[in-house]
Amino acid sequence: MKKRCLTVGLLALALVVALMVVACGGEKETTTTAAPSTETTAAPSTETTSAPSTETTTGGPATGEPIKIGFSNSITGFAAAPAASTANGIMLRVEQINAAGGINGRPLQVIMLDDKSDVPACIANLNKMIQEDKVVATVGPFAQFMQEPARAIAEQTQTPMVGMGPATLDQLAAKPQYQWSVMVSAASPTHADALTKVIKSNGWKKVLGIADQLAIHQETLDLVVKNGPAEGFTLTKLPDTFGFDQTDFQPILNKLMQAYNADKPDAIALSVNPIAVPPLYKGLRSLGVDVPIQGSPAASNPAIFAMGPEAVDGLYVLDSGGLINPPSLPDDWPLKALQVEFYNAYQAKYGRPPDFFAAAGADLIAVLTEAMKRAGGPDDKAAVAKELVNLKDFVALQGIVNFTPEATSEGVTGQMVLFQVQGPQFVFVKTVN
User: Which of 301, 272, 316, 311 is nearest to 427 (CA)?
Assistant: First the structure.
């Protein structure tokens, strides 16, 4: 498992999404099988009893024996806020599938257990769900640093698993690749390719960059630094970084301004989580920086407006798939119809737009159920796992998913979109890769 400071991964945004969602608490077991809830809430709806664990049901007209899917989620703990959004995406996609007849007429039933943002608790949850609840597959877990242990359990128990990612470079290069699990989200090579294309298309020759401790941010900039000279530009990555509890950004601004005044770059790349974007962007502009400033896909999140739209006006951001504003995408964009449908359904159910975590949750279910359909049903686990690692050209919210048995750790390898913040809007600029 990668060291914790880098594998914090998706957990970085817990600080940000907490501005928009309310995490649910307590030890809960949630299942989905009956009428969909219409209550607007940031966390999956639960029905509390006097017992420590509770059950809730949602679904549709599908009948027959439920198809049990396990999901160890960070309902409580430091990862709870974005994890709640992921659960919302899972719940919505399950309801839609069940309303359309499920898999071979059988409804999906998601058994969700709280891992409290803790690896041993996640392992215990997975073992319980596989051995006692008899789930046919698992999705998640939410936290990036839990996914390697979860994949090992999937391999040992021969239980299909669909994880979120993004994978680290070491995970992408690992041989052999896992054969009972896949990870969907785009990893640093895809992000680096998109940033490289943006730099080249703008004719920037010198770029100044800084990354927080998020593994994908560090590795993305490292790849661009390495490949830049062959592409005709130089990216200077500051050695300075910061954690996700950073509140005083003046030292970071001082470092950036020192390098900016010395190097005179054509642009600045802020590969940082959304909570860091407004103070850094606003600070740079107030100090006289007038070159373009490019944000990572983490910045394609409404949370960057925490200091007001004016604090980030003009910022460029990359987005995985374009979900931040799907109606603005070109009509021939292969993801547009799916994204618009999900965006509207999520808005109607939860009273706010979806974010990356919600889309990732929906994709976990979509990828798994597609493999089940191609396998002829959910009961032959080996057949489902084989379909997962050989899945081709499946349109998901984050992009077009492809796996091979030799590459099971990054399903999405393109479909990045460039937006610019104009007022309170993310305005479409162009598709990138």
Answer: 316
Asked if 163 and 225 sit in the same domain, the reply is no
Same domain, 321 and 360: no
Per-residue pLDDT, 63? 82
Structural domain that includes position 145: 4-168+178-185+342-400
Q: What is the C-alpha separation between 406 and 1, in angstroms, rounded?
A: 20
The Cα 276–Cα 245 span in angstroms is: 10
Cα separation, 259 vs 208, in Å, equals: 8
| Partners of 211 in the β-ladder | 271
The pLDDT score that the predictor gives to residue 61 is: 76
Q: Are strands 67-73 and 108-114 parallel, antiparallel or unpaired?
A: parallel
Eight-state DSSP code of residue 37? P
Q: Are residues 98 and 203 in the same domain?
A: no
Q: Is residue 337 part of a domain?
A: no
The segments of the chain whose pLDDT lies below 70 read: 1-60
3-state class (DSSP) for residue 331:
coil
The pLDDT score that the predictor gives to residue 30 is 54
pLDDT at 13: 40
